[in-house]
């Protein structure tokens, strides 16, 4: 696992190379090898002049093997963690052991250099932080950071403590720990996590050796030297002390009151650790780490952001046995908000893009969208003028579909109009060859109906991007009735090529994401209709962990959109019971003439003079009641969460969804379902009392608010199976 090479100049090169797996992780093999390596380093210390730690794999070292972490949480029943104390004690022991070895490494008394040949996230970076100097290869695919917070955890192998001592409490929390940024090498250097960059892997070892020879005395960490001063001061120093009270307040503001224990624990570990000596700080960090392991939020977030996300990105929903495809030239039809964003995303990874609209002016406007984003990146130092120019040069604007000849893929993003889309594709099919992948970015029209316009619907797929495309990490791939596996696999490969996460769903109105999202929005609007003050509705959603309240988000997409989709659906013969929110929408549009943000007035007023939007005061008169209903905020939150979770179960029952990972990641990445839940279906599984508890609660809500909360039969059957005495 750790190869040992003792060179003639006394430098020991340690090369991490897991014999079983393709990547190095902090698994049991690693810990055992690290222990014997440490013992050998200490016993041969006299003949050693320095140490270089590197890896033989593409990456340096990934973090803890999270499958191992489940050791601590395997004994669970019905969504409740069992034996919390035993779990915490186990987690504490594991990280204490790991960090004990790292502490011995940094106190070996010889200069130790991390030669980072590839990505080092989480535990991998923590090993590097325990070295005295870090040199990294500057490759575009390489990332450094401590993303534990995104998994509901904290960096428990000394990362919290060392970053705090390197950067100071404030910078450590803001720039590294609380958001878990994954940085490119140049960003990591700017942030102070990496000391030096080299152009290629081959340059690493010579540079590391050079550094050791030039710095024979650099065998201690700054915090182990006398006179060490923590950047920005310690908590007792006035410079930091006066800022401390704002920290938890800012965190609460960022989280909007939603339930995320990890950032809180990280903040505590960083501040408390900064007040004491390093060894005590490391122990405090272990205790905070142990407090998180096995908690419902940690399990949910680890499941979603590690297991589910990994499953999807590794091809979990891609048809197997189809050769991987690589696109080189992509056509985008429609250079509006979505088309312009799709063109940007494709050109970003080096694809040539033909961007077609009805006029050159409109197509150019689409390219200008990229120019603006790139100018901003250059101004912020995230990119260079050369890179911007190359990116823009890959986008060719055009005003004629004939320009699409020679593309491997054509993605359509014209107006949401079935006839227009069909007409567009009928023409496109006469221009491009039969082997070109045809894709529509429609957000609600049936893919199967659009596909009928082309001679070969097996080569047609839905690629549903989210707005703004440059920021949103998800693409919902929609399989039409006749979409073939090859087209699906090619759609999948393209999505991965542009660095986004694909979920795969079957065709249906609104597919999975738009359909489920609609239930959230409508539930919030229904609450308003019941007389709940609008501010309370929005607040309940934010406290539940939604990024935007249902009224604000409805204003963004317009109040008329949802109504149009429902009218169309009913016209198409789809049975849809009247939702109580519909009455509110009708009155807002027809009686008060409030269509949403684009028309300057919706649930909010948009003053247009630069001042902030505010809830329309008329809402209280229109929908309020003299005695507002006494609905507990917890119940309001659960109504929104349950509405989406139940609709997702229906999507699963109807075969719109075929995988739980698609549902969980799709809901968090695409439509803002709160991340602490682990996603819509994980929410059902880990609801207190498990599936049975969820069903019981859904029945209560159904009795109070209507049949939309009635749990589907499939769920009831599962609840009965899990709560029967035999299965206990
Ligand atoms: P938009 O109005 O901003 O842009 C549409 C563009 O298509 C316009 O520039 C228009 O000139 C162009 N166009 C119209 N007819 C054309 C034709 N025959 N040939 C070439 N170009 C033509 O709309 P948008 O918001 O970018 O939405 C585009 C599609 O993406 C719609 O189907 C929409 O439902 C879907 N979508 C939108 C969002 C969103 O949040 N806006 C999200 C996902 C999907």
Give the N-terminus to C-terminus distance in angstroms: 41 Å
Q: Count the beta strands.
A: 20
Which fold name is given in CATH as the topology of the largest domain?
A: 2-enoyl-CoA Hydratase, Chain A, domain 1
Which blocks of ≥5 consecutive residues have pLDDT under 50?
A: 71-81
Strand order, largest beta sheet: 13-12-11-14-15-16-17-18
- Could you tell me the mean pLDDT? 93
Kindly give the count of domains: 3
How would a crystallographer describe the biggest sheet? 8 strands, mixed
Characterize the overall form: globular
Question: What attributes does this structure have?
Answer:
728 residues, alpha/beta, 2-enoyl-CoA Hydratase, Chain A, domain 1, Rossmann fold, N-(1-d-carboxylethyl)-l-norvaline Dehydrogenase, domain 2, 3 domains, 8-stranded mixed beta sheet, 6-stranded mixed beta sheet, 20 strands, 48% helix, globular, binds nicotinamide-adenine-dinucleotide
